[in-house]
Amino acid sequence: MEGSSILALSNLLKDSQYEADKKYKKEENSYNPGLIGDKKKKTTTIEDIVSEHNKNKKKINKNDIWNDDDVDEEFIEEDPRTEPEYDLIYRQKVTTEDIYLGMSGKTPGFQDCDEMVITVKLPGVKKISDIELTVYENKIDVKTSTYRLNLPLPKPILENDGNAKWKKDKSELVLNLPLKKEFSF
């Protein structure tokens, strides 16, 4: 091969390499994530997203202790009856070993409590037979002709092992509900 033919071949290959690079760059620029999906859709800007978010955003009160998303809708029922006052406390069974020696490893926190005590004040109710009580694992439902308490519980309970006591002189229903134990191994 002569030098001129090598030079011509080199120019021929150089031109074809240049054309291949040019074609590759054109293809590279023509395909991008913006081409995926519906081509008729307009481009969404940050302002569009913010305005849509503000439009859908509900007014939040600083005094609220939870958002609307935190409330389970299955517990909410519309009822014209008044919700009675109630107190919810945790009770822990302790022995002298717990108090003086700390042998059981129990802490004063609610995570080591054994039962939940709910006192429902029902003024005007005279007889226990006027009260309808339903206990579920995660809620209680107390109904009378004038009161309705549909209370979601903060911790699951053993629904079949609790007891209820009617204090006639104070018109109070006291529920002792044992908590389901969560083992922390």
TrEMBL record:
Coiled-coil positions: none
Q: GO: which molecular function terms? A: dynein intermediate chain binding; protein-folding chaperone binding
GO terms, biological process: axonemal dynein complex assembly
Pfam families linked: PIH1_CS (PF18201)
- What is the official name of this protein in its record? CS domain-containing protein
Question: Where in the numbering of this chain does the CS domain appear?
Answer: 102-185
Which species is this record about?
Anaeromyces robustus
Which family does the entry's similarity section mention?
Belongs to the PIH1 family.
A GO cellular component annotation in the UniProt record: cytoplasm
